[in-house]
Amino acid sequence: YGDLPPQSTATFAQVLYLLPAGEATDDDWSCKGVYLPNDANVDGLTVNHAAALKILDGTQLVVTENPDTGAIAFNLPPAAVFSADEINWEIPDLTQAELNQQFPAAPLD
Prior knowledge:
Layout: E1 33-36, E2 51-54, E3 63-65, E4 72-74, E5 80-82, H1 96-102
Antiparallel strand pairs: 1-2, 2-5, 3-4
């Protein structure tokens, strides 16, 4: 999640950007959180719907995938977990495959 681009007409406080596997965001870009698709498998977290994980400002979040289980792991716990009806962030109800087809890439380093 990141701030709206200047030309955006979206009504959300934060919008989705995709970060390809193995990439890092630009140093000047402020990531606000991570989207979890409705089919995500996350170590230590049970969420049965699409959700947004808020991260604290100034943290360096690293996301990895367990090659044996396919579960996603974070190096830090989220500051909060939100459903679409709990925060004004763009939280569509999508699978990972649908997500990959619909959103722009985050600024890369």
